[in-house]
Structure formats: C-alpha cells, structure tokens
Amino acid sequence: MSPVATAPAPAPSYLRPDQLAEVLDRHARWIKGQPGGARANLALADLEGADLSQRDLRGARLVGAKLARCRLSGTNLAGADLFGVDLRDADITRANLMQTDLRGARLRSADFSNANLRDADLRAGTMEPGGTARRGTDPDAQDAEATRQTHRTALARLQGGATAEGGIPTDLTGAVLAGANLTEADLCGAVLQNADLTGAVLTDANLSGARLNGANLTGALLDGCTFDNADLVGTRMVDCDLSRAKLGSACLTRPIDSMGSEIQRAIFDHERWIDSVGQRGERAELDGTDLSRADLRGVNLSAASLRGANLSDAALTGARLMMADLSGANLERANLMGADLSGANLSFARLAGADLTRVNLGPAEIKDPSGRATGRSWAANLMGADLRQAMLTDSRMVQANLTDADLENADLDGADLAGAKLQRAHLKGKTPRRR
Fold first, then answer.
1. What is the Cα–Cα distance from 222 to 354, expressed in whole angstroms?
2. CA distance 253 to 98
3. ∠ Cα 211 399 233 (to 5°)
4. How far apart are CA 175 and CA 107, in angstroms?
5. Alpha carbon of 363 to those of 13, 143, 303, 382, 403: distances in Å?
6. What is the mean pLDDT of residues 136-154?
7. 18-32, 168-182, 316-330, 415-429: lowest mean pLDDT where?
8. Which of 40, 142, 256, 303 is the most exposed, having the fewest neighbouring CB atoms within 10 Å of its CB?
9. What is the spatial distance between Cα 152 and Cα 361, in angstroms, rounded to a whole number?
10. Dist CA 165 CA 73 (whole Å)
11. Pfam families in the record, alphabetically (predicted)?
12. How far apart are CA 180 and CA 382, in angstroms?
C-alpha cells in the first residue's frame, strides 16, 4: 500500500466530530489506494470517549493520542503507531493490533479480550526504533525524522519533564487480556500487575523483567514464553504447562510445606524482630503466600513483606501492619476493622468488599534505629487499589495516596481524607466527606 499524502498532525486538542470524520474518510481512501486519500495522523489528539469500533485504522498514526474510554472493539489497528497512547479503560475487544507499536502506552484497565496482539511491541517507551520500524519494514521511511520528532514529543509528555531510566514502561495494570493472542509479543519490562491473562496465547512472547504481581495466567499457553527476571510473586498460573517456558531467574512464589507451622514461626520471629528493633528474629517475608481465611487478629506484621499475598476473607481485626508491603495483595472481603495500616504500601491491592472501618491509613512516624522519633513520616500508598464496596467508615486516610484508586460505592462516611491524593480516583457512589 503506497500513501498518496500524509495529513498534518493536529494540535494536542479535541477534534470536532466533523474533523475526525474527515480524517477517517481520507484514511479509508488511503487504505484502498483511492484519490484524495491520506494516512490518518491523529498524533497527540484528544479523542477521549470516541467510538472507533469496527474501523480500519491499519497503519494510522496515533502517537500520544488520548483514547481513554474509547470504543475500539473489532477495530483493525495492525501496524499502527500507538507509541505513548492513553487507552485506559478502553474497549479494545477483538481488535487487531498485530505488529502495533504500543511502547510506553497507558493501558490500565483496558479490555483486550480476544484481541490479536501478535508480534506487538509493548516494551518501554524510548527513542529507539520500535514496531515495524525496528524490523525495517516501515512503509514511510521518508518520514522517519518526523516520526522520531513526534515520538520525542510524546515521550516528553509521558515523562512529565523528568528523565526515566530505561524509558516509560508500558502500563497494563488491571488490563483484561483474556483469550488475547500475544504470540511473539514483546512485553519486556511491562507492568501487568493484576492483569487478567486467562486463556491468553503467550507462545514465544517476551516477558523478561515484566511485573506480574497478582496477574492471572490460568490456562494461558506459555510455550517458549520467556520470564527471565520477571516478578511472578502472587501470579496465578493454574493449568499452565511450564515445561517449555523459559523461567530463567524469575522471582517465583516461595513454596511452604507446612502452612500452619511456617506461618506461626515467621510471625513469631517477626515479632521478636520488631520488639528487639532488629536485634533478634527476622523480618517476615510472606510474598505470594496463601493466607486466605487465616485468623491473624491482633498480629504484629509491621514492615513485613506480603507482596501479592492472598489474604482474602482473612480475620485481621486490630492487626498492626504499619509500613507493611501489601502491594498487589488480595484482601478482598478481609476484616481489617481497627487495624493499623499507617504508612503501608497497598498499591494495586484488591480490597473490594473489605471491612476497613476505623482503620488507620494515615502517615507512619519514622523512627531512627534506636526507636526515637525523627520528625518525619511516610504516607500510606493505595495507588491503583481496588476499594469497590469497601467499608471505610470513620477510617483515617490523612495524606494517603489514592491516585487511580477505584472507590466505586465505597462507604466513606466519616472518613478523614485531609491532604489525600485523589487524582483520577473513581469516586462514583457515596461522596467522601472531608473533615
């Protein structure tokens, strides 16, 4: 397919429906090789919420475009340039994204069910060639410099003026990839925390260095899939054949032969470690451990590592979990009434239906090695946490980071949210009452 012309990139602003319709019409003609056609160039455009389902957008330029909550079901985006695109919460079911450049894209909670992502480039966003360009098959080689400039602009927007070492990781946190075809896809360094990959085809895919905490790979096809240096703590891999997968030095869940005695010993040693200010015992490392329905009332696991642990339906009333690492943990329906979670890391944790009544999620006071106050504090981190229908009545959430948290229908009656970060938090339902 030879392009007739290339439409100029629009300014980073909202396109009127008639403007978008014209761009799509000219692209359709370009696809068919008809007169007056022009490859769609929607780089940096604001198309949030637009309905682009069933469109043929092969080879389109959507670098850095805002497509959050867009409908792209069944859309053909094969070979498109989606570098740094914002597709959060978008419907991309059954779409064709074969050989698409998705480096650095924000794909959090997007639905890719049954989509074709074969040979897609989902590495971190950098200025090195990606997508079809790195294979030397870009049909628009003469526009290479213009493409690089657009990528540079999108990368600057992603970085927010800062320079990220290794680029901006592609964010697939909470994305639905059930049944998706990711054969030979490059997901090196991608963030897939709590992503749904059930039944996905990952044959010969590259997941080196990827973060898969809490991801569900049940029934996924993993022949030839590379997990070298991947974080698989708390990753569900039921009914997966790993005999031909390349695990390399992947971080796997630690096996526990005797759950009861192992857990008791870890808690006992941890409490000694806490009481002696690190002189005796040792810090509990229970990453990925199945603690569902466990009776942990009043336990002291402050500063313990519980990344990706399964604490669903657990009894944790009055527990002390100050500055504990519960990132990616499953705390669905857990009873945490009156617990102290000050300064705890609950980023991307699942707390749907949990009882957090009168819980302390405020900042933790930082002390020196001798136990004396330093005058500094550490805020609780609930970034991206799932708090749907959680009970947060009279909870203390002062200065808590609730960025991107889902608080739909959570009960926040009497909750203290003074100084809390609520950017992009989903607050549909009961409105929080600030004090």
1. 34
2. 32
3. 20
4. 7
5. 39, 51, 14, 12, 16
6. 70
7. 415-429
8. 142
9. 39
10. 34
11. Pentapeptide (PF00805)
12. 29
What pTM was estimated for this model as a whole?
0.66
- Indicate the pLDDT class of residue 404, thresholds 50, 70 and 90: very high
- Does a structural domain hold residue 243? no
- pLDDT greater than 70 at residue 431: no
Total of domains in the chain: 1
User: b vs e for 281-300, b when ≥16 Cβ sit within 10 Å of the residue's Cβ?
Assistant: beebebbbbbbeebebeebb
Q: Show the domain range for 304.
A: 255-434
211 falls within a domain: no
Give the burial class of 142: count Cβ atoms within 10 A of its Cβ; 0-12 exposed, 13-18 middle, 19 or more buried: exposed
Contact 66, 157 (CB under 8 A): no
Nearest to 343 by CA among 368, 302, 379: 379
pLDDT (0 to 100) of residue 10: 41
Indicate whether 300 belongs to any domain: yes
Residue 141 gets which letter from DSSP?
G
Half-sphere exposure of 165 (CA within 13 A, CB side): 0
CB 57 within 8 A of CB 75: yes
Which tokens sit at 322?
């100050």
Q: Is residue 290 one of the residues assigned to a domain?
A: yes
Distances (CA, A) of 194 to 140, 173, 183: 37, 6, 20
Confidence of residue 165 (pLDDT cuts 50, 70, 90): low
pLDDT confidence band for 2 (50 / 70 / 90): very low
In terms of Cα–Cα distance, which of 334, 280, 338, 278 is closest to 306?
334
Percent of the chain, pLDDT > 70?
87
3-class DSSP string for 143-192: HHHHHHHHHHHHHHHHHCCCCCCCCECCECCCCECCCCECCCCECCCCEC
CA 199/CA 202 separation, integer angstroms = 9
Cα→Cα distances 346→181, 189, 216, 399, 416, Å: 31, 21, 19, 14, 18
Residue type, 10: P
Mean pLDDT to the nearest integer, 402-410: 94
Q: At 163, is the pLDDT very low, low, confident or very high (cuts 50, 70, 90)?
A: very low
